[in-house]
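Structure ticket #2291
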Amino acid sequence: MTIQEDPFPVDYGEDSDAMAAYLRAGEERAYALGNRGPVRYDAGGTLHGDILEAYWRCGFYVFEGVLGAEELADIEADIANIRERLPRQKGSPLDAKGRPALGADCQAPTLFWSKPLGDPFGGTDLANGRHPVKMLEPTPARDSPEEIVYLILGSLQFSDACLRAYGHPDLLAISAGINGDDFVPFTDAIFIKEPGLGASVAWHQDGVTHWDSESWDQGSHGFNIMAQLYGCTPANGVWVVPGTHKLGKVDIRAMVAAAGSERLPDAVPIVCGPGAVAVTNRQALHGSFANTSADWRVTLNFGCHRRASVLGVQGGGLHNAPAVYDAARIRQRARLIAYAIDARRQRFPAETPYVYQPFAQSGDRFPWDESARRSMKDYNLLDLSI
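Resolution: structure written out below.
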């Protein structure tokens, strides 16, 4: 996949030429890393060692061709329904058709808004101040809406197709290969980067609780699985600075100052086709630019942790109120994995379901049915944010 010849249909001002050159150079660096390909396993059925080597070396890996056409069509239909159900404007309890809006009756945070092509987190104290530098905010078209939804949390309660994708056997096997068979969930989200409107996400490293821990290592804060509906390009995708997941907390302000702009010289874009899935270490320095391109990006985001990073830990982050995560809470939040596996089994009966070892060993069963669907309301209040 290559980016468009003209990825800037809206005004980027005097930075347009520099940004275009940066996108193309970044794409070349990305393809030279050797961290992409299909999901592969070794003779024992575990994630192939070459994949693990590339992931731990770079801090991310692109798995190509994971989601098939039938599943992508299901996801696309659900995303269209979700967008139709969004509030007619920020704070409205109704959608454009006068129906109760998506998330209007949720206690947990669900919808995050931004001005078009804006950077709502950069340079603020939000999310524990982890986005210290504001990204360049291009000028949107005059007829743009005042605010747009760019992030939806607790997404599995709004989409059966997203839930089923979460239960994909390859994605869960990847989680086990990186975080161990007893891996646990973190949070789930949908990022929507609409052409000419989609917000940026300022450079940041995720994670709050383990930076100063004696047991800290390059995987302490888990990773994000990012499944792509339409694919992603340098102009609308996430960018990563390879290797920064190994460095501890980096000085983002100093890095941007040294670069002379937010175009960090060592960063590379995550470039994917439709149905590809990127796995990105949360400790890697990453961010994304405002989507001035003509291409949509819709990303299903599923976060995963090591159980040892979560059990008995005082939580932190924007996803829920701080709490000490005990075994009961982990079990309750992890039931979403079981729901996803069973929902996927019902939709794709010819596929061999993933066996989630913690529940296989305990004998816990969480079948996907209408009772389970009702129980998912506000499930993200139980997110395991570290």
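Closing remark: The domain at 13-76+104-382 is CATH 2.60.120.620 (Jelly Rolls).
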